[in-house]
Amino acid sequence: MLERKIDNIIHAYFRELSNQGILAEQVFLYGSQARGTARADSDIDLVVVSQDFADMTPKEKWRKLGKAALNLNEPIEVLPYTPADIQKSMKREGNFIRHILSQPETREYRPFKQ
Prior knowledge:
Blueprint: H1 2-19, E1 26-30, H2 32-35, E2 44-49, H3 58-72, E3 76-81, H4 83-90, H5 96-102, E4 107-109
Parallel strand pairs: 2-3
Antiparallel strand pairs: 1-2, 1-4
Helix pairs in contact: 1-3
């Protein structure tokens, strides 16, 4: 049941990101929610991959990501990356993103096709 709730929140977050002008290509869920060890006060840890981040200032990026999470009223923590950033990170040993994405419990989401 909790897994389905998280799935619904993530797909709602895709929609909120789109409303903010961010077309997410992928979202990865990691951390306690992905491992199934979350507590009632656990946040939802996400990596959002979008080419749109390449053209945004850091301030604009964080404002839009924060507004999307605020609109859902959910405890979402986001790490934003472009596809090129992900590719570079995957080539570097000891990189945090490489570590996250190599974990078997990390779950990938893609937007629903409309």
